[in-house]
Amino acid sequence: MNLQLTYCISTEDTFLLLDALEEDATWLQSNNSRLCLEIGSGSGCVTAMLAKIIGKQNAVYLTTDINPYACKATQQTAKHNGVSLVETLQTSLVGSLLPRLTHSVDVLLFNPPYAVTPPEEVGSNGIEAAWAGGIDGRQVIDALLPFVEKLLSPNGVFYLLLINENHPLEVVDIMKSYHMRAEIVMERRAGRERQYILKIQHEQQ
Amino acid sequence: MRLITHNLLQCHVKNCNSNNFPLKIEDAQVELIEADYNPEFLVNMLPKIDWPVLVNTAKQLGLPEIPAQVPEDAENNEAFLQGLHSVLLETHIQQGRMICPGCGHVFNIKEGIPNMLLAEHEI
C-alpha cells in the first residue's frame, strides 16, 4: 500500500495521528467503513491518509474546520493526493451534522486545539482556533465529548489526540460515563510535549 | 458540496427544532465532475440517505430523474446505481445558498464549501 502523502505540511502531532491510523490499517480496511468524519481537519493530511488506507472510493470523508483557509487547504490536500470523496464543511465541531449523522460515523478523527491558553482565546475563527484550548487545553475537547456516543456507528472508532496537560486519563473516565471504552494506544514525546492517541469505541465492542 | 452532504445537513440555529431539514438550495451553480464508480459503496450508503429529499433536490436542480422509491433489486440494478452515482457523488454545488425552511437562516456555499458557522447569538 502506498501511504505517501504529497503537498502535506505536518507537525509532530499530525504524525502521531497518522501513525495510529497506519497501525490500525488492516482493521480499518476490514471494518467496512463508509462514513468518516474529521473534525478540525486543518491541512487535510490526516483525512488524506485515512482515505489512502480505507480506499478513495470506499467511503465518504467529511471534514469540518472553523477556519475558511483550513477548509481550502483540506480541499487542496485531498486533490493533490487524488482523494476525490472528501466533503469539506466550514463549521464548529459537528455543527449541522447532527442529528442526521446519529450512530453513523465509522471513523471519527480529531486533532484538537489542545494547548493550555487563557479561556478567552477559545472560540475565535482565526488561526488561534488551531491551538487555543483554554483551561487545561480541554475546553474545545470537552465540548465535543458529549456527542461522541451519538456520532459513532456500532463498530465506529474515534481517534483523539491529547497531550499530558489535557489529563488523558480524565478523558478516559469522562468517556466511560457515556458508556464508551477509551484506551491510550500511542504515546510519544515531541520536544516539551508528551502526546497521546486515545482510541474510543462503544463499550460492547 | 455534493448532494450526499446536502442530504446530511440540518439547520442548527438555537431553538430551530422543527422544519429544519432539508435546507432549500437556491441560486445553485452546479458542476458535474466525474468520479470513480463504486456500486458497493452506494449500496452501503443507501440506508443513510433520506431518499425523498434526494429525489426532490435532484428535481429542483434539474438533474436526470431518479426513481421516487429505491427499487427492491437496488443492489443488482446497474442502471439505478449509475444514476444514483451521478446524482449523489458527481453533482457538485460550487456556489449558492441553503435556506432553512423553519427559521429562514441562510447558509452560503462558496467554492464548493458550505459555511455552516453560526453567529454567537445563534448558538
TrEMBL record, chain A:
One Pfam family of this chain: MTS
PANTHER family listed in its UniProt record: METHYLTRANSFERASE N6AMT1
Family: Belongs to the eukaryotic/archaeal PrmC-related family.
A GO term, aspect molecular function: methyltransferase activity
InterPro entries the record matches: DNA_methylase_N6_adenine_CS, Euk-Arch_PrmC-MTase, PrmC-related, SAM-dependent_MTases_sf, Small_mtfrase_dom
Gene3D superfamilies: Vaccinia Virus protein VP39
All residue ranges annotated as the Methyltransferase small domain in the record: 24-115
Protein name stated in the entry: N-6 adenine-specific DNA methyltransferase 1
GO BP: any one term: methylation
Superkingdom, natural source: Eukaryota
PROSITE patterns recorded: N6_MTASE
Organism the protein comes from: Phycomyces blakesleeanus
Alphabetical keyword list: Methyltransferase, S-adenosyl-L-methionine, Transferase
From TrEMBL, chain B:
SUPFAM superfamilies listed in its UniProt record: Trm112p-like
Single GO MF annotation: protein heterodimerization activity
CDD domains, per database record: Trm112-like (cd21089)
Listed GO biological process terms: rRNA (guanine-N7)-methylation; tRNA methylation
Superkingdom as given in the UniProt entry: Eukaryota
Signal peptide segment: none
Pfam families, per the entry: Trm112p
InterPro entries: Trm112 (IPR039127), Trm112-like (IPR005651)
Assembly, per entry: Interacts with TRM9.
Protein family according to the UniProt entry: Belongs to the TRM112 family.
Entry protein name: Trm112p-like protein
Source organism (scientific name): Phycomyces blakesleeanus (strain ATCC 8743b / DSM 1359 / FGSC 10004 / NBRC 33097 / NRRL 1555)
Biological classification of the source: Eukaryota, Fungi, Fungi incertae sedis, Mucoromycota, Mucoromycotina
